[in-house]
Each structure stands twice: as structure tokens, then as C-alpha cells.
Amino acid sequence: MDETESLNRAIHEEVALFPYDLAWPTLFEKERDRLLALFPDQFLAIEHIGSTAVPDLSAKPIIDILAGVDSMSRADELLEPLCRAKYATSMEYNASLVGRRWLMRWADGRRTHHLHLMVYGSEEWHRRLAFRNRLRDSTELAQQYERSKRQWAAAFKTDREAYTAAKGDFIHEALNKASQSSQ
Q: Residue 23 — φ and ψ, nearest 5°?
């Protein structure tokens, strides 16, 4: 399979969940270290987010990485160099995003990493870390999220956008409940 075919397969890959893999944290660390070596002084922090960052949670086997930058203009400046460093992105998709940029790394026709660039310390930065931390701290919430993800994966197997939107609603509700209970 050539590189173009591999990328096209990864872009159109179906939504599928896999049991938690003990290798996921190591895969994050390896990619974090690679990014820091390639782009010294560009990232203010790099965090492992998403379901692969939560022990025992089933997930799409894609390592989600949150990379903090000092501004969105810095994120935009990094897109082309990141693409030269084995990432791919859609400029059209990124133009639709507010406050973040998205890139994908792939191999053998499947996604391996999602890289989310956003301003370090922004509201969205804190929101993503808060949800990861809530899942790590609450087995009940993590189990509820996993059950819901299985339903969405079955319903939206070939529609990643709908799957992502369903997750977004769950995340929003979980964070609102956490906020209300802490007041």
C-alpha cells in the first residue's frame, strides 16, 4: 500500500473500539518526546487526553495528544512543519475550528495519533483536561462513557463526525454536572 492509499484509508476508517491497551501511555510518551525533540521550545505543555489516557477504558486505538502553544498564530505556523514530520491535516477542516487546530498521524492505513493544538491555559485546554481527569477519578462515569461510546460506534460506524458530536454532548453534560456539584 502506498502512502496516498494509506492516508485515504486512514481518513475513511470506520469507528471501532478496542479494549484498553497497556501500551497506549508508552505510545503517547514516545510521540510526546519525538515532538519535543523536533520542535524544541514550541510547546508549553503536551498532555495525553482522550480515552487512551484513561486506564481500563475501551477506545479507538488512536492516541489523542493535546499540545499547548502560546497563540493560535503559533499553532498555524506549526501546521506545515508538523506535516513534514509525518502528520496530515485538512486546512479546510482547521478553518472551521475555533481555538484549536487538528492533525492526524497514520500508518498502514489506520490512524495512530490525533494532535490537538490549542492555547495553553485556555478554557478549552482546561475543559479537555478536566474531562480526562473526571474519567480517571470516576469509574462509574468511565463505565457510563464506555457504554455510550459502544452505542454511538454501532450507530455511527461510518460517520466519525456524528460519533464525535455524540461524545461532545456527553462531555458537556458530564462537565456541567461536575461544575454544579462543586458549587
A: -80, -15
First-to-last C-alpha distance (Å) of the chain: 54
Domains of the chain: 3-178 (3.30.460.10)
Q: Strand order of the sheet with strand 110-119?
A: 45-49, 63-69, 110-119, 100-107
Closest CA to 124 of 180, 67, 63, 170: 67
SS (H, E, C) 61-97: CCEEEEEEECCHHHHHHHHHHHHHCCCECCHHHHHCC
8 Å CB contact between 58 and 17: yes
Grid coordinates representing 13 are 476508517
Query: Using H for helix, E for strand and C for coil, what is the string for 89-108?
Result: CCHHHHHCCCCEEEEEEEEC
pLDDT in tens, 112-124: 999 999 999 999 9
The DSSP call for residue 161 is H
Alpha-carbon gap, residue 95 to 128, rounded angstroms = 20
Nearest residue to 20 via CA among 56, 60, 53:
56
CA 30, 71, 62: angle at the middle one, nearest 5? 30
pTM value surpassing 0.90: yes
